[in-house]
Amino acid sequence: MSDNKIIVPLIRFACVLTFLVIVIGAYTRLSNSGLGCPDWPGCYGKLIVPDKVENVNEAYLGRPLEHTKAWIEMVHRYVASSLGLLILIIAFMSWRKSTLSRIRLFASTLLLLVIFQGMLGMWTVTLLLKPIIVLSHLLGGLTILSLLYWMALEQQPRQNNVINSGNRKLLPSVIVGVFILVIQISLGGWTSTNYAALACTDFPTCQDTWWPDMNFKEGFILWRGLGIDYEGGVLDGSARTAIHMTHRLGALITSLIIITIAIRAIKSGMKNIKITGCAILTLLIVQVSLGIANIKLYLPLSVAVAHNGVAALLLLSLVTLLHQCLPVKKQ
């Protein structure tokens, strides 16, 4: 069996595994298990969660062992480590054969990203859930997922979509849509890492008004120094409200842009682009519904995790449309 026949299924499996890592990471964060193991890479000095721990005050920041949270955190680390190993194998295989030169650059970039992602995972723990680090960790995971998915798309035969002038006109809009969605996902991550999701518990108003008291300056300070424990959040109510409302307004703007892109895709002359447009519109409706449900139902864990997962799928659907709108390279 040639390397091509082996590496393509590995790339596809890596996509699925990366999505799983993102979902488990969201579950870890939203279940407040991010510091279930206060050290790294082990858990209370062990590679497997120990039955009991002595002397936690000096060695482990005074955090008593909570088995459930510790296991959630370690499962996330185990799956993420497996993904890192898989990407290393893909990169190694791409370096071996000149026939795989098209994916060698992607694989090498992914390997560097996954190393940096591991460092972000370490800093997430050692810097006590600093929001900018946790957010960077989330965005790093989505970047790895998008690159792997793009590699998988590159291995598929595709039609020359750009023959249709309408598709050429759609391309700039799709690029803008991807950019805006990444900003909105970042706002969602900032909302989550600053524990601002329930700053407003009513919808469409917030705290029974359309424009509550908000402190934007305090809410969007990216770096607050070292040695601060961010578990549970450190911001006051007005700062959290500012973050929450910014995410809401961002959701409105993002939805309008993506709806426009999806409708234009559905009206295009290419069947595969129409299908992608329908998928984008469906995922957007689900995502907005989950966001509203998070507020109305007071952030149930299952809904909050699903909100993260669908955000990743929505990003991939736009990446699919972007790939479909690009010219086909001649072999």
Give short descriptive properties of this protein.
331 residues; mainly alpha; 2 domains; 10 helices; 68% helix; flat
What does this structure look like?
The chain is mainly alpha-helical. The protein folds into two domains: 156 residues; 172 residues, no CATH class. It is 68% helix and 0% strand. The protein contains ten helices and no strands. Helix 6 runs antiparallel to helix 8. It is flat, with a radius of gyration of 21 Å. The mean pLDDT is 91.
What is the number of strand segments? 0
Structural class: mainly alpha
- Unreliable stretches: none
- How far from one another are the termini? 23 Å
Rough outline: flat
Q: How large, in whole angstroms, is the Cα Rg?
A: 21 Å
- Mean pLDDT level: 91
Instruction: Spell the H/E element sequence.
Output: HHHHHHHHHH
Estimate the strand proportion: under 5%
Indicate the percent of residues in helices.
Answer: 55-70%
Number of helices: 10
- The number of distinct structural domains comes to 2
Largest sheet: none
Oligomer: single chain
Q: What's the short story on this structure?
A:
This protein has 2 domains: 1-156; 160-331, no CATH class. 68% of the residues lie in helices and 0% in strands. The protein is built from 10 helices and no strands.
